[in-house]
Amino acid sequence: MLTSLEIKTPLVVSSPFELSNASILSDPLQILNIDGLGPVDASILSTPYATLDGETYVGSSVGKRNITLTLGLNPYWTEYSSSSDLRQLAYQYFMPKNEVTLIFTSTNLPQCEISGYVESVTPNIFSVNPELQVSIICPFPHFQDVEFTVVSGDVTVRPTLTTTTIPYIGTVPTGIIIDIRRAYANNAESPLQVINTTNKTEIFCYYNFSE
To answer: Pick from 206, 208, 209: which is nearest to 194 by CA?
Structure first.
């Protein structure tokens, strides 16, 4: 379950918004709803056969993500005396074209973040309960862990081999950064084998450890 949302821009950083009923009445800007957090639809590319029924699969990709925030304005319990003051506060975080980073904290997953650009900010000025609809377009659609995961292990040359397993709880392919440090001062050259155990793909890298 989501518990809080922090908003970062190049100029300002918000205090985390608590996503709970207990704190919603005391927040000047209330996160009433968040849309666009589920998996983004994939685009499946296929080519029809010339003389057969059906089509052949060519490839697939996931496009941009659109996150929509519904913000409630609550001037009654804060130093802000009007909804207009709160709209100006919201505009500090959300102005069209501005870059924004959303950091989500939940009870069952690591803290993750996603960056995008504000597409639109639509106020409902004349409503009894004033609101703001904020649309954010995220060109890279996947959420990323805020902290890097560091896994340490030993690497030895043949005939003695060692194996280090890197656990991964994500749901989409990710990259890795390999940092190899020499344990003794002599020249050596040997292969490093990286295997993705999910689909059994292998990457062979050759490193020269000489100065």
So the answer is: 206
The contacts of residue 53 (CB under 8 Å, 6+ apart) are: none
- How far apart CA 93 and CA 9 sit, in angstroms, is 6
55 pLDDT higher than 70: yes
Asked if the model's pLDDT at residue 123 lies above 70, the reply is yes
- Using CA atoms, how far residue 131 sits from 33, 43, 75, in Å, is 11, 33, 12
Strand stretches in the chain, DSSP E = 2-8, 17-18, 29-35, 42-48, 55-62, 65-73, 99-106, 112-124, 131-138, 144-145, 189-196, 201-208
Three-class secondary structure of residue 25 per DSSP = helix
Q: How far apart are CA 169 and CA 186, in angstroms?
A: 38
Length of the chain: 211
Six token digits for residue 124: 């409902």
Distance CA 189, CA 211 (A): 12
Show the tokens assigned to 81.
């005396």
pLDDT, tens only, 174-192:
777 777 776 666 655 666 6
Cα(9)–Cα(99) distance, rounded to whole angstroms?
A: 6
Residue 210 — pLDDT band, cuts 50, 70, 90?
Answer: very low
- Specify the pTM: 0.77
Dihedral sign of CA atoms 55, 57, 58, 63 in order: positive
